[in-house]
Amino acid sequence: MLKDSLVQIAINAREASNKLQYLTAEDRSFALNRIKAVLENKKRDIFKANEQDKQNADKLVKAGTLSASLFKRLDLESGDKFATMLQGISDIDRLPDPIGQITYSSKLDEGLELFRVTCPVGVLLVIFEARPEVVVNITALALKSGNAAILKGGKESILTLTALSSAIQSALNDTVIPPNAIQLVETREEIDALLDLDKYIDLVNYPAACNAAETLLIHRSILSSHLLPLVTALQNNNVLLHLDQESLSQLPPSYDTSRIQSCIPEDFDTEFLDLEMAVKVVSDVEEAIQHINSHGSKHTDAIVTENEQIAKRFMQGVDAAGVYWNASTRFADGFRYGFGAEVGVSTNKTHARGPVGLEGLLIYKYKLCGNGHVVSEFE
Amino acid sequence: MLKDSLVQIAINAREASNKLQYLTAEDRSFALNRIKAVLENKKRDIFKANEQDKQNADKLVKAGTLSASLFKRLDLESGDKFATMLQGISDIDRLPDPIGQITYSSKLDEGLELFRVTCPVGVLLVIFEARPEVVVNITALALKSGNAAILKGGKESILTLTALSSAIQSALNDTVIPPNAIQLVETREEIDALLDLDKYIDLVNYPAACNAAETLLIHRSILSSHLLPLVTALQNNNVLLHLDQESLSQLPPSYDTSRIQSCIPEDFDTEFLDLEMAVKVVSDVEEAIQHINSHGSKHTDAIVTENEQIAKRFMQGVDAAGVYWNASTRFADGFRYGFGAEVGVSTNKTHARGPVGLEGLLIYKYKLCGNGHVVSEFE
Predict the structure, then answer these.
(1) Is this complex's ipTM strictly greater than 0.85?
(2) Of A44, A309, B63, B200, whose CA is between 20 and 30 Å from A296?
(3) In terms of domain of life, where is this protein from (chains A, B) (predicted)?
């Protein structure tokens, strides 16, 4: 039964996607503006749903099963969050139409012309985490780029997500875009079932790794001078540390190690997603690169050095979406890169890498216009 | 055991790929020239292997288990095939270096600069069919773009492939490129095992669909005037036809139907890969588009019409790598598009679509150079 209803969701999305191929930039712009207006009108309902989500989450925080930082991300009412979300729709609407751009053309023969033209990928399946406003960001990006989308957000914000997506669908009802262009699913089981329906789904964006630093590699030559101040600074900021034997041996015997552990090999393959970090001593940049390429997430890696040659070697050799020299890994974000709204940060090595915005939701097709041309004339 | 040796092949490829990141354009060019020279020197050994492959295949042709057209594709000796293969290496060598191109840059702040730079995808797994010279084409494309590759060709040309790849590895021995940058595997079972090793493999290119026309959709309004001449022309060229009921009913009672079958639904989802075609009557371009989007291979679809509006609608609505108007689908090929050598034609809708050449073997990374910049200053 679950399977049947998900096949229907996937078919709906594919049919909506087929219709989206024909729409003009004006059609898509009209829809974005309509969505913005309806969200504005339904602000009170959406806030009511958000209140309820926060009340439910608050119980989980008190029970110790939800972190305070996750709770904070649920909130859609504080400050100018809602207004920023709406402004995001207008920002995306104002971008140039990404569809139908000719990125290559060639006259193959008299009367035979080849064009490579940008077009939507088709049906996106997007899984994201706590922040409910992401459903609106992704809707705007998907429709601007002519894609249908099936969305799943964090279960803690389910009421807010439902309110937002029902506002979106009701807005689409007033446009030429089928409301099924944007559909919400709620459970992990539904995602598993949808992943089997790859006949209908063209692109899946999993939740991206976040941009917290997980591992610190420190050069042996500066161990005695730099380790202690570094560890102390991190400890003062409440970071739980996993130190390798060599760095551990550098701490004075009297050092307070209540927030310091001896690291195990698995620590270097772990995304702690918390105030937690592994520390390892390396003998040179080659060892650092090799460690990162074996254990890293391929998201973002940074080197701190005054030596330009070493920095260049690092940036050339490390296989990651972002490689930084003397800058915080927290810059790994579409907004900070100046790209505007993003779907997420990709650690893939095909299609889109790093922040994924409009460009990552497009592919191209080749259009060939002839006059009865056949190949044998070209042999 | 098989698993262990394949893990080793995959690790070898990954290590070679890591080394390839640092090589200069000159290093890679030197390797291509060396490969060309060694292939030239070992021409006699390679031809001997090819002779043996052809003798073995000839028995299969006589036993009726291998088609004559496949046999023809095995051959590397006839005409200027070998010379063309070597020339292909030089052609690829002469192309501009695709790596390290800055495709985007932005100054985020004083002393904080962001660059998007092209880089190799990493480790390619390429599965191709009968023509053994493909191993050389792909080697040249892979090395030019700084990628390592694991290759599997058709089993009928295994001796030729082994001779070619051992020549390639021996050539690489004289260069800074690790010989393991190009490795050959022989069986389907090895591919299955490699597909599980996605930690080491970044991109898989399956054999592409070929560009033979599989289905003819004919507009009802021209059925009585055009069907019979079409069917007769196809029959005269020995094409086995699968006609739907409506088109079948158009044939005169006396018509010779020994090479005509009544079509079944599965015919529209079948790649015949032979002189064979399904025929279906449609009432308009919308029905044609819907049929193609439900049953097509997403490779290439063509419309024959004098009506520009209909043609544009077709090219907009059909979801395929190539959409043609009044031109043969056999143009779907990197050489005919003027792109030079290709790895294959992609029917994917992400990363690369249509003919896949150098560009499809590249991705990018973001390089950020700062001066101790942290994010909090930007909040």
Answers:
(1) yes
(2) A309
(3) Eukaryota
